[in-house]
Predict the structure.
Amino acid sequence: MLHEWAHCLKSAPKALAFLAGLGSAVTGWYAARLWYWASLIVLPQFDPPLASISDAPELHIMSAYNQLNETSRLLEVSSRLNASAARWTAVASILAGAAAILGVA
């Protein structure tokens, strides 16, 4: 019976190394997907304002305001995706390090 426990203790680090390596692969893949999604966001190309600022300042300002809002919204989405991808990459790196350490043990 003691021999069985000793065998389990010897193989436990290898099993944990495999699980950590698998976790690293999955989280790394997910981070890559998030970065890919962030790269698909295209900022719109806007036409020049409909009115000059000297002819109709209200229309010019409203047009510029709407364009800035749309650009800001898209940058915010891309920023959130990039930040999340960075966190998942950190998790993947930690798991990869754990897999390497456990694989040696």
Q: What stands out?
A: The radius of gyration is 26 Å. Helices lie at 2-39, 57-104. The CA atoms of residues 14 and 59 lie 67 Å apart.
